[in-house]
Amino acid sequence: MEGHSFKESLLVGGAIGAAFLLIVTLVFMVFHLRQSDIASRQLVLAQRIALCADRGQDLEEKGDSRPLPETGENSVSGRWDLLAALHLLDKGGPIAGEHTPGIENPEISLLLNSLISLRQARENTQAETPAYVSLTLLFREKIQALSDALTFRAITARGRVWVVFRLLIAWASILLVTGFFVIRILGLREKQLRLENQLLGLGKELLQSLPEAIVLLDKSLTLKFVNRLAERYFGRLHNFRPESYFGRFCHDQALLESLRDSLREFVQNSPKKVFSVSQEVSLMQGEGREFLVKIQWYQLPLAEQNYLLGVLNDPEEERREDLSFAVAQERLKDLSNNLFKAQDDERRHLADELHDGLCQSLAALKMQVFGVERHVEKVELQEECRKARQFIAQIIEDVRRLSHDLSPVILDDLGLSDALVHLVNNFTALNNLKASIAVPDLDDFFASDAARNIYRIVQEAINNVGKHAKASLVLLEAEIIGDEVRFSIKDDGVGFDMDSVKKGRGGAGLGLASMTQRVHFLDGKFTLVSHPGEGCEVTFTLPKK
């Protein structure tokens, strides 16, 4: 009954004990039935002797050799002889065709011997004499006393039979009840084992295909299943032999005790972590081989029983994965850097084309219109030419501003701090906004590439203010905090719903992604806070480089 609970073991022990006591009680029942039957036959014989004595009959003396009248099962076989009947009670013999032992009670046996002596003395005394009459009366008194003693003895024997019968009924009832529960428990256990084997069979292929090493333990910490990846540490299981006990591989007694404690409380519905973090475990195998692994333990309810599911990871593989991830991150950063550089180079090239090509062409067009204006005599045509020159001049200014936005030459000429101030001032002037700027000297804290990325981040943030915020005030602040610089761009616009932005709704586009990537490229932290009707704040913190 290995693995049963205390209650189950108690029921099984109770059933076995009840069965043993039932057998013992049956033996006592047979014994007391036999004693009761003997006592009944002895009582009937004693009553017949007393009846004969009361009537004053002595059949033998009258020469009557008639047999004793039959009284059912308790009749005395043979010819009637009162003295012989007394000897039969004392020594035992056949009564009604069955051998009956003599009376063993010392007091009753002494009374019988006294009756035999009186009977013998009466036979040796002359009839009708005073001595004869006295002996007859004394014999009758003693035979009545014998009958009363045997009656009490027979009643006591019957009482014992009833007591034993009641015990027999009690033990049989207990045996039936405990047997019922034992059979029910065994049936449930068999059903559970079938269900467990079925579930394990259904999930075996799935567990085998998992990319992790998996081990399944029952409540006695015996290995019930290991997938192919876990066979590296535990080997293959062969019919769940005793050596599949988990303690054979793990010698950490504290861990084994903790795992046993976790299985004492049954969990419902879903798996539950046993420990908050993975446990480092040293697994021993034959030939002195040892593996250091990390195991995350889960308490798993299966077929109304608790199991432990262990997910194994090799720390060396994790370190290799972390190293590969770090290399991939570094490569991604280099790729982002190259991408941003390519974008800036393309913007610089486009800005040069706009400034040197389109602006020059527009300037030439403006001069041509001015030449036409001087040769036109009509005032109306001169006015049209003048308006055309003003429009061309505005286009030239817009192209120059676009050229400067694409490639901020001012950043190289004035430095990061002045370039940011110039950027915000121009933006607020063009959009008729108020500005609050607090930027310390940052030129010595960032390299040229980092400064260009910072300029682009701020530029994108204020462009978003112009497109979406409907604000009246823009604040740009930069604060030096230890080895970091914190930038903040705020507005008092309409704001937006952050959940919509996170889910890709509400107008979130490439601008926010570009800012986030540039901050990440500079090893900084980027935050965006906004609520409908409360404006927006873009904050990013960068380390000095």
Short descriptors:
Beta-Lactamase, 545 residues, 13 helices, six-stranded antiparallel beta sheet, alpha+beta, 15% strand, five-stranded mixed beta sheet
Please write out the topology.
Layout: H1 6-55, H2 82-91, E1 92-95, E2 98-101, H3 106-123, H4 130-209, E3 213-217, E4 223-226, H5 231-234, H6 253-262, E5 272-273, E6 279-284, E7 290-302, E8 305-313, H7 315-375, H8 379-406, H9 409-414, H10 416-431, E9 434-438, H11 448-469, E10 473-481, E11 484-491, H12 498-502, H13 510-521, E12 525-530, E13 536-543
Parallel strand pairs: 9-10
Antiparallel strand pairs: 1-2, 3-4, 3-8, 5-7, 6-7, 7-8, 10-11, 11-13, 12-13
Helix pairs in contact: 1-2, 1-4, 2-3, 3-4, 7-8, 7-13, 10-11, 11-13
Sheet of most strands: 6 strands, antiparallel
**Distance separating the two termini:** 72 Å
Overall pLDDT level: 77
Percent helix: 55-70%
Shape: rod-shaped
Please tell me how large the radius of gyration is: 58 Å
Count of spatially separate domains: 4
Strand content: 15-25%
